[in-house]
Write a structure and sequence with these properties.
598 residues; alpha+beta; Rossmann fold; Elongation Factor Tu (Ef-tu), domain 3; Alpha-Beta Plaits; 5 domains; eight-stranded antiparallel beta sheet; six-stranded mixed beta sheet; 13 helices; 33% strand; membrane
């Protein structure tokens, strides 16, 4: 049993690409948690996508031993993501910690996610160690960044550490600060309680929950101690098959005591019984649960279809397996007349959706068609009812609608002040409502209320272009607000193609309708008959284009004779084309959907 006074639980949080994973690597190296022959960059980023993109997607806990002034301490580090779409992962790790290392880049300074994470940290009252990283860069100005930290967040000058995670400069100071400044875990009860902050699935051990033990002890070696355990919320009861810690691989220890971070193999086959934020207790004991946190709410919705309909069952199994390690996205079966059977999936943001799609492609070898992203609209009906829709297919008859509300996000944009003009112009195009503008040195902080539907298409890419890559964005849900929205429907040869329907703002509807019609005209192959492509809002056609038919030269076989012979053949052909146009079905190859939605 480890003395709680010698345990330090902490997380590293930072804006994306500020050196968080590199700092974690150096800490693992110095404490000897990883053998030098096994050491590689971004050791805690196990997913190949994390390595390629240089981002952390999933949190990864690791246990280390550090000796300071002759006393050995146990460090539990929980590596956390930096992107705003994965803020729920950060909130998970904070519940398992007593302190935070806040990393800020010495070249780019305070960014949007830095502020977002710190606001989250302040709600928990955790101890914060401010660290200025990348002091080895020629463009670094650490003293200016330190002034920003003091001015914006109220840190004391003497508490700010200056390091280079890449070069290993002053990493020892960070470890000493962890010992001295981060408090040891405090016991609050004699009964066993452990907070679940993540989970994964193992085919042999069932659901494996990552836990922080807040009270008591569990010991598999002591037969009198090990009893049935239970999840407080789901009421699921289980016998632990294995108990251990992270080094960073799972290592069976047989025991977890107050303050420790580790894992428990439950043997359960249904991950829904092990909710993140739930409390594990001994079955039958009367114990209050630990304060958990809300399940993340999906904000962006895409429908995934297999390019080959025979892969539907594979797609279903793959999504189920992926949800075992990432419970933050939802899926429900969905079908389309044009694309067949698929799944409507909800995500925390567009990057989250992109990562899941990429994982389905790489890890399960699936080829997927994804529809245009949409958001959740709230529709108030004339009869007093309220309907929530996630796809255009669910859009009710316009005559039944009283008004429509869309989700509005509170956005903070950080950028060098010379790019404020182009950013303001971009936000104006995106129907944003200006809230505030502050300057801190060369950095500007712009605050806006921005419709989520405007953010999910190309806002982030255009923001990066407008600021030459320097701007960063943080956003959170603010409220639902009334909007004048309409549903654009596409008719191919006068037949509705539901796969191309979209819900858009009325003022932009004609422009978007024309764009969609032109895209379809470009990509749909020609048929033996003319294909009219129409975009409609209600009964009104707002855009149209025609794909001309293949024309067979029926008069080629004629070698002379009267003109009426040629006219007769052309008239017969015209009748056939007319009949074909009225009966003919437009074939849409899968590639068209891929091209239209990319």
């Amino acid at each position: 049993m480890t003395d709680p006074k010698l345990i330090r639980n902490f997380a590293i949080v930072a804006h994306i690409d500020h050196g968080k994973s590199t700092l974690a690597d150096r800490i693992l190296e110095i404490t000897g948690a990883i053998e030098k022959r096994k050491m590689m960059d971004q050791i805690l980023d196990s997913n190949p996508i994390e390595r390629e993109r240089g981002i952390t997607i999933k949190l990864a806990p690791v246990r280390m031993k550090y000796t300071f002034e002759g006393q050995q301490y146990i460090f539990n580090l929980i590596d956390t993501p930096g992107h705003v779409d994965f803020a729920y992962e950060v909130s998970r790790s904070l519940t398992a910690c007593e302190g935070i290392i806040l990393v800020v880049d010495a070249a780019s300074g305070i960014q949007a996610q830095t502020v977002a994470h710190l606001n989250l940290i302040r709600q928990t009252k955790l101890k914060v160690i401010p660290v200025v990283n990348k002091i080895d860069l020629p463009t670094a100005h650490p003293q200016n960044i330190a002034e920003e930290l003091i001015k914006n967040f109220g840190f004391a000058k003497e508490n700010i550490l200056y390091i280079s995670a890449k070069e290993g400069t002053n990493i020892g100071q960070v470890l000493e600060a962890v010992v001295k400044k981060i408090p040891a875990p405090q016991r609050t009860s004699d009964n066993f309680r452990a907070l679940v902050f993540s989970s994964q699935y193992d085919p042999h051990l069932g659901v494996i929950v990552f836990v922080r033990v807040t009270d008591g002890i569990i010991n598999m070696k002591d037969k009198t101690d090990i009893k049935e355990l239970s999840f407080f919320a789901s009421k699921a009861i289980f016998h632990p098959l294995e108990i251990g810690v992270f080094n960073p691989e799972k290592v069976s220890s047989g025991e977890l005591s107050c303050g420790e971070v580790g894992y428990i193999a439950t043997g359960l086959k249904d991950i829904r019984q092990a909710n993140v934020g739930d409390t594990i207790i001994r079955a039958g004991e009367s114990t209050s649960p630990l304060p958990g946190f809300k399940k993340p709410k999906p904000m962006v919705f895409l429908t995934f279809y297999p390019t080959d309909n025979d892969d539907y069952l594979n797609l279903r199994e793959s999504i189920e397996k992926l949800q075992l390690s990432d419970s933050s996205f939802t899926s429900t079966p969905h079908s389309s007349q044009a694309l067949g059977k698929g799944f409507l999936c909800g995500f925390l943001g567009l990057l989250h959706a992109e990562i899941v799609k990429e994982r389905l492609s790489r890890e399960f070898g699936l080829s997927i068609v994804a529809t245009a992203p949409s958001v959740e609209y709230r529709i108030s009906l004339r009869n007093g009812g309220i309907k929530t829709i996630k796809t255009p297919d669910d859009y009710p008859d316009p005559s039944l609608i009283d008004y429509i509300e869309e989700p509005i996000m509170y956005c903070r944009i950080y950028s060098p002040k010379e790019y404020v003009g182009p950013i303001m112009q971009l936000t104006q195009e995106k129907r944003a409502i200006y809230v505030n503008l502050n300057y801190a040195g060369n950095q500007a902080q712009l605050e806006y209320l921005l419709p989520l539907s405007e953010m999910i298409i190309d806002f982030f890419d255009r923001l990066k272009s407008a600021s030459h890559g320097f701007a960063s964005l943080d956003y959170e849900f603010y409220e639902h607000r009334e909007v004048d929205a309409v549903k654009i429907e596409i008719l191919l040869n006068r037949t509705r193609a539901d796969a191309f329907s979209q819900i858009v703002v009325r003022e932009k509807s004609v422009i978007l309708a024309n764009k969609m019609v032109e895209k379809l005209k470009e990509h749909i192959p020609r048929h033996q008959f003319q294909i009219p492509i129409q975009a409609t809002i209600g009964s009104k056609v707002v855009a149209r284009a025609d794909i001309s038919a293949f024309r067979k030269d029926v008069t080629a076989k004629l070698y002379g004779g009267d003109r009426t012979r040629k006219d007769k053949l052309l008239k017969t052909q015209k009748k056939g084309k007319k009949k074909m146009r009225s009966l003919g079905k437009v074939e849409i190859p899968q590639e068209v959907f891929l091209k239209v939605y990319t």
